[in-house]
Structure formats: structure tokens, C-alpha cells
Amino acid sequence: MTASRLLVFAPGAGAPSSSAWMLAWKARLERLGRVAAFDYPYQRAGKKSPDRAPVLVAAHRSELERARAGQGGPLVLVGKSMGGRIGCHVAVELEQAGVPAHERPAALVCLGYPLVAPGGAVRDQVLLELGTPVLFVQGTRDRMCPLDRLAAVRANMRAPSDVYVVDSGDHSLVAQKSRLGQLGLSQEQLDERALTAIAGFLERFAPV
Question: Does the residue 1 lie in any domain?
Fold first, then answer.
């Protein structure tokens, strides 16, 4: 049994693990541990509409268990948008089921958390129930997660949480070219800064 850090990487609702964004982030995350990316059932079936939440959670848990086989190091759930939210549901479900701490995720990383649903509802209940440390990597232009709303939710969370803010980043953490020019940075450099923040967070909560 190996003891390297395992990062189970879940996609967002709109693009599978084979998308350019997911592949680029998978390559970055592989510098922090072994990465197991996966797709939800509807994505594997070529459908556009996500499965219902119980199906997504069950599939996420199944992928976690499959990836964890023979893996002895700390487990981290990383997710893009919906994948991060479902990862939070998985962590809560495992804790409430009484799964031993060493068998549960040591940390969560949410890349663009979808706090505000399309209809305007704030999806904060799972965050308030969460006990697992979580890092939110959020863009300042992300309409699905206004930073002031996230701050209000974090103030009531019992789980340790941090936020890394991507200057002018959208829901996919992509910055405006004009802002990149002002900062004297490329998008790749901005992504590298986010990765550094993730690495620091994992050193604190999911050390190898």
C-alpha cells in the first residue's frame, strides 16, 4: 500500500474530465499527489443534464472508493464547480455515517464553488453541516459565488475554511486579459499562484 496523497478530481456540470480545463488542472494537481479524475454517470452517457443529487453523490463515493483501493496516504476531494459541491455532500455523508476519520477525506478543494443556484437560492446548507477543512478558490467575477455571500456563510461554518481569491477570475478562474496586462501576469502564472495556495492548504490539513 502506497502512502502518497490522493486527490480525487470531480468535474463541473458542463464539461467532463476530458475537457481542456480539467486536463490542465489535472496536470497541475499531479505535482501535489496522485490524481484520479472521473466523470459522473450522465457525462459518461453523453447527456447534458446532470443526474439528480443522490445519483451524483453515490457515483462520487464509488469513484472515491475505487481510487482509494491500495492507497494509504491522505485523501483530498477536489472539484470544479458542481464537483466541489458534491464532494462536500460526500464528506458530510461519510462523517454522519460514522466512517472513521482516517478513512474520510482529510480536506476539500473547491475550484469555483457554485454557492448561488441559477434561480438565486444560496446553497449553503451542506457547507454549514461540513466538518472537513475546505479551501475555496474563487474568482472576483464569479457570479455564482459572490465573495461577500461566501464570507457570510463561512462565518457560520464549523469546518475550518480558507479562500484564495483569483483577481478578476470568472467561474472557471479565468481572468480578464486587460487585468492580466495590468498585473503583468499570464493566465498560467495566475493559475500557478492558485496552485501554490492549494499546496499550502494541503500541507496544513492533508500532509503526506
Answer: no
Residue that the C-alpha cell 464549523 belongs to: 158
Nearest to 107 by CA among 198, 13, 16: 198
State the CB neighbour count (10 A cutoff) for residue 32: 21
In a domain, 117, yes or no: yes
**Counted domains in the chain:** 1
| Distance between CA atoms of residues 85 and 93, nearest Å | 13
Question: Residue 13 maps to which CATH number?
Answer: 3.40.50.1820
Judging by DSSP bridges, how do beta strands 75-80 and 6-10 pair with one another? parallel
Each residue's pLDDT expressed in tens, for the chain with a length of 208 residues: 446 899 999 999 999 999 999 999 999 999 999 999 999 999 999 999 999 999 999 999 999 999 998 778 999 999 999 999 999 999 999 999 999 998 899 999 999 999 999 899 999 999 999 999 999 999 999 999 999 999 999 999 999 999 999 999 999 999 999 999 999 999 999 999 999 999 999 999 999 9
- Residue 194 in grid coordinates: 492558485
Whole domain around residue 55: which residue ranges?
A: 6-205
